[in-house]
């Protein structure tokens, strides 16, 4: 969790020891990928440790044992964040309409469920409310700051979607 800056490896939601679980990117289910079961780069901290009946599943809980190396984008892929775009209302979409892997990843991780859209929108709104008083240079500085850890080592919750939306407000 500390390596991830205390945010879910998939959605960017704040996590803690009591609200997260160890996610096996390549599933540990019977006869799936036993050789990766304890491989460090196959393990991520993911949100939704416990769920309530009727609560929508997302991230690692929804992914469960699904894995397709051609259709699942790994959080550690160098181009991972470039494969998606975010909207001010908290939506997430493939950056390229033809990117089947981004579409499948979004679906199999539930990244666009209403709960996550609302949470992302709240994080975006919290920052955008201060924008009228910011210059373009202030906005550029803010986008850099939002991608940095605070003194406690945490990244801001949903920092990627917030920065994506803010960068869209900057002149080219």
Task: Give the gist of this structure.
By secondary structure, the chain is α+β, with helices and mostly antiparallel strands. The longest helix is centred in the last third of the chain and has 15 residues, at 114-128. The radius of gyration is 17 Å and the shape is globular.
Helix-strand layout with pairing:
Elements: E1 20-24, E2 43-47, H1 59-63, E3 84-86, E4 92-94, H2 100-109, H3 114-128, H4 136-145, H5 159-169
Antiparallel strand pairs: 1-2, 3-4
Order of helices and strands: EEHEEHHHH
Strand content is 5-15%
Secondary structure class reads: alpha+beta
Overall number of structural domains: 1
Count, helices: 5
Distance N terminus to C terminus?
35 Å
Tags for this model:
two-stranded antiparallel ribbon; 5 helices; two-stranded antiparallel sheet; 9% strand; 30% helix; alpha+beta
What report would you give on this structure?
Helix content is 30%, strand content 9%. The protein has 172 residues and is of the alpha+beta class. It has one domain (20-169). The protein has a two-stranded antiparallel ribbon with strand order 1-2. It has a two-stranded antiparallel sheet with strand order 3-4. β3 (84-86) and β4 form a beta hairpin. α4 (136-145) packs antiparallel against α5.
């Amino acid at each position: 969790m500390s390596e991830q800056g205390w945010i879910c490896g998939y959605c960017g939601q704040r996590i803690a020891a009591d609200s997260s679980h160890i996610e096996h990117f390549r599933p540990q289910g019977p006869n799936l990928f036993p050789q990766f079961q304890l491989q460090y780069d196959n393990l991520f901290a993911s949100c939704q440790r416990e769920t309530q009946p009727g609560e929508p599943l997302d991230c690692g809980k929804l992914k469960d044992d699904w894995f397709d190396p051609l259709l699942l984008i790994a959080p550690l892929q160098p181009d991972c964040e470039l494969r998606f775009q975010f909207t001010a209302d908290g939506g997430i979409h493939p950056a390229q309409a033809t990117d089947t892997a981004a579409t499948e990843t979004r679906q199999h991780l539930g990244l666009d469920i209403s709960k996550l859209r609302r949470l992302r929108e709240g994080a975006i709104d919290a920052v955008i409310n201060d924008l009228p008083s910011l210059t373009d240079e202030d906005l550029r500085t803010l986008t850099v700051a939002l991608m940095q850890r605070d003194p406690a080592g945490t990244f801001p919750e949903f920092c990627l979607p917030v920065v994506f939306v803010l960068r869209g407000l900057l002149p080219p």
